[in-house]
C-alpha cells in the first residue's frame, strides 16, 4: 500500500524519462527504462498497480473463484456426491477478494518501484509544453515520456442513471452485502463474467445487451455456448435490448419492459483517460474517441513521447499493456524501431466455460476464401467427457499451407489451453507440427491436438497424398518380399 513518505517525496526538475500513469503499462515501462540505466520519474494520481490490481483482473478472478466454488457444491450430485445446502457468506467472499489484492499489491508497490530505480511521484499530471509536465504545481522537464494513463468505465447516457447509485467495475468491490437483484447493463466480457459470478453467489441477475448476441466480439458459436451456460446458472439474458430509462428500483427497456433491481452494474465498455492531460500543449494527437494516436512503434505525434496500454485503442488487456509498456520504453530509451506484434492479441473471457481466442478471428476467417476452420467438439475430448463438460469445442483457423493462423477455444481452462496456440500462431506452426508433439493425456489440450491430428489425417487422405502413400507402401512391400526371399535362400 502507498505510504505517506512517497507522497511527500522530492523529485528532480529534469529527468531522462517521465512515465505518466502507474498501471501495468506504466510500471513495466518505468522498470524497463530504469533497468537500462535511465533516470525515471513515474507519476501516479492515486495508487500504483492500476485497474488490473485494484478493480479489474485480480478482484474479478477472486470473485469468480468464490462463485465457482459455490456452483461446484450445487452440482456435486452429478458425480454421486451429496452435500448440504450451499450458503454464501458475502462479507467473507469479499474478504477473500481483498485478501487476494493485498497479497499481490506489493509487486506493484511504490517500494518495489523505488527498489528498481524509479522515482514515484503522486499527483495529477498535466502537460504544459512538448517537453514539460506539471505535477503538484511544479514543472518537470523530460527528454522522453511514455503516457500510460489507461481507461475508465464508460457510463452511457440513460435517462435517470445519474440519480441512481449505480456500480461500475471501479466501485463494485465496495459492496458490503450481496444484492438480491443485480441488473447488469452490458453483455461484453465484464458484464458476462460478473453476471454469472453474482448469479452463482445467489443474486437474481438480469443481463441486458444491445447486440444480437452476448460477447458480440466472439463467433456466434462461442456466444451460444456461453449463453446456454448463463441461463443454466439462472442469469436472465436479454439481447438486442437497450435500457432507455432508470429510476430508483427499475429500468425501462426499448421494448417497454420493466426490470426490477436492487443494484445496477454498468458494464458498457471503457473510455481512455486522456481528457485532463493537456495533450494539446504536448503536441500529442488524439482521435475522435479520445484515444492517443500511435504508430506501430507506439510513438505519438510528439517525437519525444510514446504511449502504451488502454489509452492507445489497442486491445484493453493487461498482457497487452505489459508488452506494449516494455516496447514503448525500450524504443524511447534505446532508439529502437520495434513494432507491436501483428499476429493477434490473445483474449480470454473468464466465464464458465471460458472463451479464449488468438490470431485471426474465427468470424473473419469464415469470410476469407483462402482460410478454413477445423473444429473439434469436446464430446470427443476424453477429459471433457470425464468431467461432464462436453459442450465446448476447439476451432483452428488454417491457411492454404495448413499453418495455424488463429484459434478459438471454448471450455474449462480455455485460457490455459490457448497458450500453445498463441505460440503456434506467432511462429507459423503447421498442424503437423502440433500433431507431432506428444501431449499429456487426458487433458483439455487434447482439443487442439486432436483438431490438428484430424487436419493431418485429412491431408493424408487427399487424392494426391493417397496415391503417393499407396505407391510408397507398394514399393515397400515389394522390397520386404525380396529381402525375405533372399533370407530364405540363404538358410
General description of the model:
The protein is α/β, with parallel strands linked by helices and about 500 residues long. Helices cover about 35% and strands about 20% of the residues. It folds into three domains: about 5-150 and about 270-335, FAD/NAD(P)-binding domain; about 160-270, 3-Layer(bba) Sandwich (FAD/NAD(P)-binding domain); about 355-460, FAD/NAD-linked reductase, C-terminal dimerisation domain (Enolase-like, domain 1, 2-Layer Sandwich), CATH 3.30.390. It is built from 16 helices and 21 strands. Strands 1, 2, 3, 4, 5, 6 and 16 form a seven-stranded mixed sheet that branches. α4 crosses α5 and α4 (about 55-75) crosses α7. The longest helix is centred in the C-terminal third of the chain and has 28 residues, at about 465-490. The N and C termini lie far apart (about 85 Å).
Q: List unreliable stretches of 5+ residues.
A: none
- What fraction, in percent, of the residue positions are helical? 25-40%
Beta-strand residue fraction: 15-25%
Largest β sheet strand count, sense and barrel closure: 7 strands, mixed
Mean pLDDT equals 94
Amino acid at each position: 500500500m502507498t505510504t505517506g513518505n512517497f507522497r511527500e517525496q522530492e523529485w528532480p526538475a529534469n529527468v531522462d524519462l517521465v512515465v505518466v500513469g502507474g498501471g501495468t503499462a506504466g510500471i513495466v515501462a518505468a522498470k524497463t527504462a530504469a533497468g537500462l540505466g535511465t533516470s525515471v520519474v513515474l507519476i501516479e494520481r492515486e495508487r500504483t498497480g492500476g485497474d488490473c490490481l485494484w478493480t479489474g483482473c485480480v478482484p474479478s478472478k477472486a470473485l469468480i473463484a468464490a462463485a465457482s466454488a459455490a456452483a461446484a457444491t450445487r452440482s456435486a450430485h452429478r458425480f454421486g456426491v451429496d452435500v448440504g445446502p450451499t450458503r454464501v457468506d458475502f462479507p467473507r467472499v469479499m474478504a477473500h477478494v481483498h485478501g487476494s489484492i493485498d497479497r499481490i499489491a506489493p509487486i506493484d508497490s511504490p517500494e518495489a518501484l523505488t527498489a528498481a530505480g524509479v522515482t514515484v511521484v503522486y499527483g495529477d499530471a498535466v502537460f504544459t509544453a512538448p517537453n514539460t509536465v506539471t505535477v503538484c504545481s511544479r514543472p518537470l522537464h523530460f527528454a522522453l515520456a511514455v503516457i500510460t494513463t489507461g481507461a475508465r468505465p464508460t457510463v452511457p447516457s440513460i435517462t435517470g442513471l445519474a440519480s441512481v447509485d449505480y456500480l461500475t467495475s471501479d466501485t463494485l468491490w465496495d459492496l458490503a452485502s450481496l444484492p438480491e437483484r443485480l441488473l447488469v447493463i452490458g453483455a461484453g466480457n465484464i458484464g458476462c463474467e460478473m453476471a454469472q459470478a453474482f448469479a452463482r453467489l445467489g443474486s437474481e441477475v438480469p443481463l441486458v445487451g444491445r447486440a444480437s448476441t452476448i460477447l458480440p466480439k466472439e463467433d456466434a458459436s462461442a456466444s451460444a455456448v456461453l449463453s446456454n451456460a448463463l441461463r443454466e446458472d439462472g442469469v436472465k439474458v436479454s439481447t438486442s435490448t437497450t435500457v432507455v430509462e432508470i429510476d430508483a428500483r427499475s429500468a425501462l427497456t426499448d421494448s417497454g419492459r420493466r426490470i426490477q433491481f436492487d443494484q445496477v452494474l454498468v458494464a458498457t465498455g471503457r473510455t481512455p483517460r486522456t481528457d485532463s492531460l493537456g495533450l494539446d500543449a504536448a503536441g500529442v494527437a488524439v482521435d475522435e474517441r479520445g484515444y492517443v494516436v500511435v504508430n506501430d512503434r507506439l510513438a505519438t505525434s510528439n517525437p519525444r513521447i510514446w504511449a502504451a496500454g488502454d489509452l492507445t485503442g489497442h486491445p484493453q488487456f493487461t498482457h497487452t499493456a505489459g508488452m506494449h509498456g516494455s516496447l514503448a520504453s525500450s524504443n524511447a530509451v534505446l532508439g529502437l524501431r520495434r513494432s507491436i506484434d501483428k499476429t493477434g492479441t490473445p483474449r480470454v473471457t473468464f466465464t464458465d466455460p471460458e472463451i479464449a481466442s488468438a490470431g485471426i478471428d474465427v468470424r473473419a476467417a469464415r469470410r476469407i476464401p483462402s482460410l478454413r476452420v477445423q473444429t473439434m467438439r469436446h464430446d470427443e475430448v476424453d477429459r471433457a467427457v470425464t468431467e461432464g463438460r462436453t459442450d465446448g469445442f476447439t476451432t483452428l483457423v488454417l491457411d492454404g499451407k495448413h499453418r495455424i493462423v488463429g484459434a478459438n477455444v471454448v471450455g474449462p481452462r480455455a485460457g490455459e489451453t490457448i497458450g500453445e496456440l498463441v505460440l503456434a500462431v506467432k511462429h507459423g506452426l503447421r498442424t503437423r507440427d502440433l500433431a507431432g508433439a506428444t501431449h499429456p493425456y487426458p487433458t483439455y489440450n487434447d482439443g487442439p491436438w486432436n483438431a490438428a491430428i484430424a487436419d493431418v489425417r485429412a491431408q493424408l487422405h487427399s487424392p494426391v497424398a493417397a496415391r503417393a502413400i499407396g505407391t510408397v507402401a507398394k514399393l515397400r512391400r515389394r522390397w520386404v518380399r525380396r529381402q525375405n526371399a533372399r533370407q530364405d535362400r540363404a538358410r
